[in-house]
Amino acid sequence: MASGVVHIPLYATLGRGDMLADGIVDMLGPASLHYGATKYTVQRSRDDRFNLKLMVWFNSKDDWYRYWEGEEAIEFRARYSGKYMVPITYVWHDEIGSDADVPAVSHVSADTELVS
Question: Which terminus of the chain has fewer Cβ atoms in its 10 Å neighbourhood, N or C?
């Protein structure tokens, strides 16, 4: 199966943004590594502090499903129930390119003219 990244948006209920963010960073994200995730990232909007996103990279959808239905993710959903809007929806994205596929580029200033 193709490797991919799962986007999991979570929206905190009023006054619980920090608590939910801490739970994702401390519990849900790191647990993914025990199920074969190669990377995870947690993001928080600067414009809407209740808007959070967990992105998790897996080499197979089977690993993703084992994680999402695993003990830690179930415990997270139970422990933080009422602290986020439901439902939690997630979307698998096939990864078709990344910065790992591109050679490193030195810094280019805004004054530099690029020639094709």
Answer: C
User: 9-13, 52-56, 97-101 — which is least confidently predicted?
Assistant: 97-101
* Domains annotated on the chain, with CATH: 4-95 (3.30.70.100)
- Comparing CA positions, the residue from 46, 47, 50 lying closest to residue 9 is 50
Q: Where are any strands of DSSP class E within 45-85?
A: 51-58
Under the banding of pLDDT at 50, 70 and 90, the label for residue 111 is low
Q: Alpha carbon 65 to chain centroid distance?
A: 15
- The torsion region of residue 82 among left (phi > 0), alpha (psi -120 to 50) and beta comes to left
**Tokens 């959808």 belong to which residue?**
61
Output helix, strand, coil percentages for the chain, rounded to the nearest 5: 35, 25, 40
What residues are paired with 52 via a beta bridge?
10, 44
